[in-house]
Design a protein that fits this description.
- By secondary structure, the chain is of the alpha/beta class.
- Helices cover 48% and strands 17% of the residues.
- It has a five-stranded mixed beta sheet, with helices on both faces.
- The longest helix is centred in the C-terminal third of the chain and has 25 residues.
């Protein structure tokens, strides 16, 4: 099964990041994906994503348009990815590609998530 995970943090998302745009991008790649939408912005608790984690089985795919939609925190994102990969679940960021359960795959994911966390903290710093 393919789960398309769509998350928005604010009502004014950047171009390409609205619920509709994320959904369209995922469905263009995976027309049969079940789209799961998370709309609780600014909150690290993600009940819809937690629901996916309980349902996925080996061979399933969790797809997001970008790594910034998957996780807002590097350590949580890495922990979740490791758990998923060890269970045989695939993670696909449309902006990057399918992550592999290899040392290189873990390295790339670490860099992507650390960069996203840095960008978020800089945005928060500038807007406060």
């Amino acid at each position: 099964m393919i789960f398309g995970y769509v998350r928005v943090s604010t009502t004014k998302q950047a171009k390409g990041q609205s619920i509709e745009e994320q959904t369209a991008a995922i469905l263009s790649r995976y027309p049969t994906a079940e789209i799961i939408v998370e709309t609780k912005g600014g909150n690290k608790h993600r009940p819809e994503f937690d629901g996916i984690l309980k349902r996925v089985l080996p061979g399933d795919i969790i797809c997001t348009v970008d790594h910034t939609r998957y996780s807002r925190d590097t350590s949580e994102g890495l922990r979740t990815a490791k758990e998923l990969m060890n269970r045989g679940i695939l993670i696909h960021f449309l902006s990057f590609g399918m992550l592999e359960n290899t040392p290189t795959g873990h390295y790339v994911l670490t860099l992507l998530l650390a960069n996203a966390e840095l960008e978020l903290s800089q945005i928060v710093s500038r807007t406060q």
